[in-house]
Amino acid sequence: MQRIRLRYTKRGRLRFTSHRDFQRAFERALRRAEVPMAYSAGFTPHPKVSYANAAPTGTGSEAEYLEIALTQARDPEKLRLLLDESLPAGLDVVDAVEARTSGLADRLTASVWELRLDGVDPAEAGRAVAAFNAAAAVEVQRTTKNGLRTFDARPAVVQLETHSESADRPTDQPCAILRLVVRHVTPAVRPDDVLSGLRAVADLAPPVPAAVTRLAQGLLDEETGTVTDPLAPDREAVEAHSTAEPTAAAKAPA
């Protein structure tokens, strides 16, 4: 059995695709691409696909991850191209690597998010961000299946800062861009929780819903506050194996 790890995106209107919608689309793509999938046992076998920490419905993403199990070995890049062609534009498979290490989900400990606040003056957003960062605690509320829950969103936020908008923006309306690095904790702190926190500490209320995009997710480097590529250990293991094979062949007796 071969395991392949994939990174895919949710772009444009496809950001409104739910995780279940993506699962159905991806399983159709597997059939179209004639991928030799391994299946679970039992009366209702399912293709062995493991999804990791999917982004909420309505948010875009450049860094969603999953793993598939195959019954026959395939070249990861060729497989990526076949699957990408079989999915609608916006659900794009952008990276593939053979799984040579364990614990992909354990390496997804943080996310980098971009929050686009149309109609918000960047200076106003900057003051709100400063207030949030200075706060010892930022209590927010979220409705769950068990009712209204209150929790502190501040400890999960590693970094929150403003970013400059591009100079070629086609409109004169103000727009604030926030960059957020957040730990994956329990309960999960999502970008909308941080927006609720900004409203609580600084009365920042965007006139239209924020456009939210996950830029990256992976292992959090506590020293630098950066998020590393979770597929890097697999790539390194594949490279080390390919380097070792010619060396072993050269040492083999004639």
Automatic annotation (TrEMBL):
Ranges of residues in domain DUF2344: 3-191
InterPro entries, A to Z: DUF2344
Biased composition (Low complexity): 240-254
Highest taxon listed in the record's lineage: Bacteria
Chain spans, region Disordered: 223-254
Any matching Pfam family: DUF2344
NCBIfam families membership: sam_1_link_chp
Stated name of the protein: Radical SAM protein
